[in-house]
Structure formats: C-alpha cells, structure tokens
TrEMBL record, chain A:
<feature type="domain" description="GGDEF">
    <location>
        <begin position="131"/>
        <end position="265"/>
    </location>
</feature>
<keyword id="KW-0548">Nucleotidyltransferase</keyword>
<dbReference type="InterPro" id="IPR050469">
    <property type="entry name" value="Diguanylate_Cyclase"/>
</dbReference>
<dbReference type="Pfam" id="PF00990">
    <property type="entry name" value="GGDEF"/>
</dbReference>
<dbReference type="GO" id="GO:0052621">
    <property type="term" value="F:diguanylate cyclase activity"/>
</dbReference>
<dbReference type="InterPro" id="IPR029787">
    <property type="entry name" value="Nucleotide_cyclase"/>
</dbReference>
<keyword id="KW-0808">Transferase</keyword>
<dbReference type="InterPro" id="IPR000160">
    <property type="entry name" value="GGDEF_dom"/>
</dbReference>
<dbReference type="InterPro" id="IPR043128">
    <property type="entry name" value="Rev_trsase/Diguanyl_cyclase"/>
</dbReference>
From TrEMBL, chain B:
<protein>
    <submittedName>
        <fullName>Biofilm regulation phosphoprotein SiaC</fullName>
    </submittedName>
</protein>
<dbReference type="Pfam" id="PF09345">
    <property type="entry name" value="SiaC"/>
</dbReference>
<dbReference type="InterPro" id="IPR018530">
    <property type="entry name" value="SiaC"/>
</dbReference>
<feature type="domain" description="SiaC family regulatory phosphoprotein">
    <location>
        <begin position="9"/>
        <end position="124"/>
    </location>
</feature>
Amino acid sequence: MSTRERALLEEVAALLEAPAHRDHPLHAALERLYHHHLEQRDRLERMINIADGFQQSAQQDLHATRHQLERQRRRQRKLSRIADRFQDLLHERNQELADASTQDPLTGLANRRCLDDHLASLAAGAARHGRPLSLAMIDIDHFKVINDRHGHVAGDRALVALAESLRDGLREGDLCGRWGGEEFLLVLPETRLDQAKVLVARLGDRLRALDLALEDQGRPTSVTASIGLAEYRPDEDYRATIHRADQALLAAKREGRDRTRCDAG
Amino acid sequence: MSHDLNLPGSVSTPAIQSDWQAGRLSMQGDSYPENSFDLFDQVIDWVEAFLARESRPLTLALELVYLNTSSVKAMMDIFDLLEDAHEDRRAVEVVWHYDPRNERIAELAEEFKEDCSYPFAITPLEVPA
C-alpha cells in the first residue's frame, strides 16, 4: 500500500470516527464506500498473489523443460558421435578384409587372386585395343638353401626384402605379385617382349646387388633369379600367357639359372 | 535364479549372461541385432529389477566390439541406470575389456565413460602371444 493511499484511508477513517460528523447526511454512504474499498483491496491482493504463484510455477516448468532439452541434446550428440566412430571402425574392418583378400600377408605384394583379377581385366583391355602386355615369372635361385641354412624366419625376412626391391624397381602401372613360395609374377602393361627384356634385366641386376644381410659375420648374402618372359597374344586366355612364362622360366632354370629366357612362341 | 539371462550370442548379437547371486552382468561380442529393443529390453529389465530388489553391488563386465546405433543407445540407457543408482549411493561398476590389438574399442569405451561418475575401468585383455 502506498503512503498516499494509507494517508487517504487514515483520513477517511478519522472523519468517520469523529462524533461531530456522525449525523452528516453523507456519513452512512461514505462508511459503506470505505468498507467496500477495503474489501476490493483485499481481493486485488489475493488475485495478485495467485497470479504470481502461477507465474512462478510456469517459470519453474520452463526451467525444468529447458534442462531436460539440454540433457537430451547432449545425449543425442554423444550417441551420434559414438555411432559415427563405430561406423568408421566398420569401414576400417572392411578395408582390412579387402586388403587381406588381395594381399600376400608376408610381403604385402598382390596375392594370386589379385594377380588373376588384375590380369583378367588387363588382358581384356589389351585384346580390345591391340595393346601389348607382357608377363615375367621370377624364381629366386636356390632359395631353399637360405631356409635350410638360416631358418624360416630369416628366409621370410629375405623374401620381404626381395619383394621390396622388385616393387621399387617397377614403373607406375606395373604390378608385382607373389605367385607362390619364392616365385613372383610381374604384370607389365603397355610393354612388348623386347621392352620387358630390358626391364627384367635391370630387375635381375637389382636382385643380385641386394644384400640380404643373413650372415652374422657381416658377409653379404646375395641371390640370383631365373626369369621367364612371355607376351600376351590377343587371341589367348591370359592363363595361357602365364603358362608360357612359366615354361620360359623352366628353360632358364634348366640352362643353369641366373638368366632370363623368353617364350619362344 | 530363474530370471537370469543366458543368451548364447550370434554373428550379430552379443552373448549375454547374468548372475543375480553374484550381482554380475556380462556381455561379449558384436551387436547389430535386427531388433535391438527386444534384445536390450531384457537386459534393461534385469538391471532395473536387480537395482530395485537388491542392495548388493552390481558389476557390468563388457567385452563388446562392434555396436550399431541402436545398441549404442541401449548401452547409454543402461549406463544411465547405473548413474542413477550411483547417485542413490549404490555400489555399481563397469569393467570394459578390449583386445589390445584394437585400441579403437578402448577409445570408444572412453566415449561411453564420459559423464559416468561411478567406477568405469577400461582394461586390455590378456592375449596369448
């Protein structure tokens, strides 16, 4: 209640109390008006209180809802984040499986299945466009001796080093795969037999120059390779080309190893 | 206890075992079930029942690997149940074992652990060399 209102009410109350005004013709009407005002004021205050109460509880509700929303949002973000990461994981797993099915686990070179797929599509393209394609089958000479003398762990290490040396000696677009034990197959697209000869001569030198470092005394360990070459013929199955490269390799071995032989065909 | 769970697990569902007497719930494997609600409702029911009827400690032993989104959601719900119990001063804990060859799983377990104020251990499994 404001001071002005209080002062007015006190003034009216005092006038009504004063005996001198009791018989005044407006006394009864003023007295009713005075009480009516007091009642109205009470009502107004109650209404304000109730309205305030409602507002407060609405505020509290709003606050709680906001809090809940914030919590839900946090949860949602966390859920998406974790789910995304699991998806990445799945993706990586798939990639690993794809690698495992196309790579030789020891050397990381293409495995036989990968070589087959690659050759099938290359051969189809070479036949269609009349482009040359050559294959080289490489066998490391007397590799069994390394395994027998130094053990299989050392033998594996030597294979990894040889594979790396072969891979590094290739041109872009060439593919080197592990065909079997110590046998490697080179797939040389856009390459005629005479060009392949130059390339594998260089590779043969690389292998010869490689020190496999298997001897404790620091004496270098080196190996040689026998290589069979064949060029793809547009009318044949690529497996026939592999067979001819293999036959050329056999000839190289029969003639004393450490040499390259071309398919006579 | 008759209401214990013992689900063998499959390619897409984790193996689940509960031991009411020991206060222990274990889950292993991948989880991308066709109906994750059917699967996890049983687990959530078991955890809720245990927390409601017992006052003994509860241990969650996990060896989960891959989880799809609805399984992640279900696991978050279970961890929330444990968080509520922990706020009621109940002894609860999670031990998440992972294959040390797959550190990514440990990182994901760490993500789950965030916001959890009860003991949550992430430990590598012993793998034969």
